[in-house]
Each structure stands twice: as structure tokens, then as C-alpha cells.
Amino acid sequence: MNSLLESKVIAILNRKGQSVNTRLQEVCEMLKAEISYYDWVGFYFRNGDKEELKLGPYAGAPTDHTIIPFGKGICGQVAVSNANFVVPDVSAQDNYIACSITVKAEIVVPLFVNGKNIGQIDIDSNTSDPFTEADERFLEFVNLEVSKIL
After folding, report:
1. What's the confidence (pLDDT) of residue 98?
2. Which pLDDT value is given to residue 1?
3. How many whole angstroms separate alpha carbon 118 and alpha carbon 28?
4. What is the tens place of the pLDDT at every residue in 12-31?
């Protein structure tokens, strides 16, 4: 995507004096502010030993979806598939959990620690079909950097 954004991610995540949640919150806020079509940015993490995801730090409108069962919605499907999921048009997805009527597209990239899927970064966009392969590679980079502090 852009090396300046990558540098900002690294700088935020390397702030040792702050909690992990504070750093993740700052990453969410920075991505939402810096990338015009990132309208909601958040992390979901596996909820202990349960087959569900729990909402972590995020930036954007509040959501009722604080717990998502594995397999349900885009996030729940990524928890099972361990693969990126890019949705250019959420209205065309049968297994989609609507967070807001303004959301038109979504991208979810799994977060691995020691080869295990422990969560994901979830981006909603109010723009139709905005996500490219560059977004996927950038979000994979973000998650790789996040995995180093978890």
C-alpha cells in the first residue's frame, strides 16, 4: 500500500509503555483516518476456548456484534477458513451480518500467532468494491506486525 503507513503501524505497535489494547486501538484509529474508504476498522479475537470471536479494539460506529459464532458472517467464516475474505458487495452475500445499512463492502484478514488463527482484522467500507490486492497485502502486513506484540 504505502511505506509511510507501514512505518506508522510499526511505530504505534512498538510503543512499549502502552498496553496492547491501547496500541491496537491506535492502529484502528490511524487506519480509519488515513485510508478514505476504511469506514470501520476493528480486531476480533478468538474468545478463549469457545468457537466464537469477541470484539477487540475498533474505530468507527459502535456495533452490536461483539460476539460472532464461528461460521457466521464474514468474520465467522474467516475464523473457520483461515483465509482472507474480500466482499466487494455485501448485499450479494447470503451469510453476511449487517453492521450498518451504509456498509457496502468488507475485507477480513486472519491474524496468526505461531501458525494459529487467533483473530482477524475487519474493515467495513461505505464505498462499493474498494478493496484491492494491495489492501490484502497491507492488512497481512499489519497482522504480522500485530502478532509480534501478542
Report:
1. 67
2. 64
3. 18
4. 999 999 999 999 999 999 99
pLDDT grade, residue 96 (50/70/90)? confident
Residue indicated by cell numbers 467495513: 124
Instruction: Transcribe 77-121 into DSSP letters.
Output: HHHHH-S-EEES-GGG-SS---S-TT--EEEEEEEEETTEEEEEE
- One-letter amino acid for residue 105 of the chain: A
pTM, full prediction: 0.96
Q: How many CB atoms lie within 10 A of CB 112?
A: 15
As given in the structure block, the three cell numbers for residue 8 are 506508522
Interior/surface letters 7-46, b for 16+ CB within 10 angstroms, e for the rest: ebbeebbeeeeeeeeebbbbbbbbbbeebebbbbbbbbbb
